[in-house]
Amino acid sequence: MKTLIQLTLTAVLVASAAHAQGMTETMVAKPDIAALPGVALNQTLADALPEDIRNAGILKVATSLTPPISFHDDDGKLIGIDADLAAAFGIILGVDVEMTDVGGGPHIVPAILSGRFDMTISGINDDPELQKQVDVIDYMYDGTTIMVVQGNPLAVASMDDLCGRRVAVPVGTFQNRLAQAHSDEHCDVPMNIMSLPKMPDVLQAIRTGRADATVNGYATSVYSTEKQVGRGVGLQALPDIRLAVGYLGMLTAKDDTALRDTAAATLQQLVDSGAYQAIMDKWGLGPLAVESVKINDAANLAME
User: Fold this and answer.
1) Which is it for the CA torsion 141, 147, 152, 158, positive or negative?
2) CA–CA distances in Å: residue 16 to residues 65, 100, 111
3) Domain boundaries in the chain?
4) Residues in contact with 72: Cβ distance below 8 Å, sequence separation at least 6, in sequence order
5) Is there a shared CATH topology between the 11-142+248-299 domain and the 143-244 domain?
6) For residue 84, what are the CA distances in angstroms to 34, 39, 242?
7) Which pLDDT does position 301 carry in this prediction?
8) What angle do CA 169, 173, 174 make, to 5 degrees?
9) pLDDT digits over 241-261, tens only?
10) Residue 22 — pLDDT band, cuts 50, 70, 90?
11) Contacts of 234 (CB under 8 A, 6+ apart)
12) Which of 168, 177, 166, 179 is nearest to 241 (CA)?
């Protein structure tokens, strides 16, 4: 899955370029989302939104692609857990939610630091370093596993088996750092780490034989095993390998506590009503649902 530990004076330029390249759409709740319990206007929460969002009637949300958390359907529409949550947020808060695919994980934190977006709903790993830049609303659990070509022809059974292998990972992610750290600390023959722009590129590298494996978020890996085949080549998660259990988080600016607290309370309404669990179950990730919504809680689930 995705995280970015980056402070940069070019954040505005990066986020602006990503916005220009990405797809923006207003998230309209499908009947199954609108009909869920608790998905109804909460005027108290709507009134608690920052004034600029209330006046505009628009909540601007950045995302990036991590199936089944956020991805495009065959018609190019954003779907997944994040899109469903965004649609539910719009109803509860009485605003339009404009959701933009900013292209890849490296653009997520700059999207907030630049001020171009109000928040992110994207499968990005929470960790204490990330919290130095942004506030993180922890909205689901995840872990890390290894993905290989279907059948696991190289008989990979642990991170040690990746030593000397070509390992593709998205640039700027927690999994990238995890693979590099393991290579540095445990491999006599280092991994050949291929840092690629985004997750679809990583999966394609394995399918085409450019890479032997990836170290990837557990949720995405399990989903890709069950649902996705590219060019006739399936991939396989190794579910017995479950490393670095932690949170995925929504991001808000550190000086925007009103939005942070309102978003957290909105998500808690969905948790309490059962709507959140229904969305997680819909996409096959019910076991990764949180029981309550916490903010900046990564230190209590250290990803080691």
Assistant:
1) negative
2) 18, 12, 8
3) 11-142+248-299, 143-244
4) 23, 65, 78, 79, 101
5) yes
6) 10, 11, 26
7) 75
8) 105
9) 888 788 999 999 999 999 999
10) low
11) 149, 150, 225, 228
12) 179
Amino acid at 5: I
Looking at 1.10.10.10, 3.40.30.10, 3.40.190.10, 3.30.450.40, the CATH number of the domain 143-244 comes to 3.40.190.10
Show the tokens assigned to 287.
Answer: 């076991």
Say if residues 96 and 58 touch (Cβ distance below 8 Å). Answer: yes
Model pLDDT for residues 221-241, shown as the tens digit of each residue: 877 777 765 555 688 989 788
CATH hierarchy code of domain 11-142+248-299: 3.40.190.10
Residue (of 188, 144, 184, 190) closest to 167 by Cα position: 190
The count of C-alpha atoms lying within 13 angstroms of the C-alpha of 198, restricted to the half-sphere facing its C-beta, is: 18
Q: Are 136 and 3 in contact (CB under 8 A)?
A: no
Cβ atoms of residues 207 and 138 within 8 Å: no
Q: Which residue in this structure is represented by tokens 């292998």?
A: 165
Q: How far apart are CA 102 and CA 76, in angstroms?
A: 14
